[in-house]
Amino acid sequence: MAGAVLYDWRRDGHLEDWKLEGNGELLKTDDGALLVRTFHCGPGRRAANVWLKALELPEAYRVEWRFKSDAAAGNAMLLFNARPLGLSHLFEDPRPDARYCDLSSYGKMVLHTLGFHRAVYGQPSNLRKLGGHVPAAWGQAEYPGAAWQAMNRDTTMSSVTEPLTREDLGREQAYALEHTPGRVRAWLNGKVLHDWTDAGAYVHYKEPLRGGKLGLRNFGGYAEDFYSAFSVSAL
Question: The domain containing residue 200 runs over which residues?
Answer without folding.
Answer: 5-234
